[in-house]
Amino acid sequence: MALERTLSIVKPDAVAAGHVGDIIKMFEFNHLRIIAAKLVKLSKQEAEGFYAVHRHRPFFQSLTAFMSSGPALVMVLEGDGAISLLREIMGATDPAKAAPGTIRRLYATSIERNAVHGSDAPETAAAEIAYFFPAIDLI
Ligand code: GDP
User: Is 19 a known active-site residue?
Assistant: First the structure.
């Protein structure tokens, strides 16, 4: 499988609840290496930019208010098949539908406050990484 990079965000709900260490442990256990990381408190506008693809969805205002409500840990992860691997260990968007043992099943509290983000395809991974990190910051 190809070596890939993907963007992960430990969302404000999971940072506030103290799950950063547990989530990073799951990444590392699954051979996803952290090659860049920073704690950010997004402005509403920055959250809207990141989730622009969802701007016409009914939950857009609520989602971007949540994502700008407190610190979030943004990371670039690297590994074999990292994009689909991260999606697998995250679990389904709705924690009620997420498989047992996945991050969202363990730590999400609603379909919106679902603990973690992971890019869904190579093109979105590249765009999302560039949204947060200049190339020089990637190890
Ligand atoms: P993801 O790729 O699994 O994160 O899911 P999406 O790209 O479809 O949605 C982006 C984010 O919007 C999700 O991770 C949730 O935080 C939020 N979201 C998705 N669907 C809903 C919904 O039906 N209601 C609300 N309130 N938030 C949602």
Answer: no
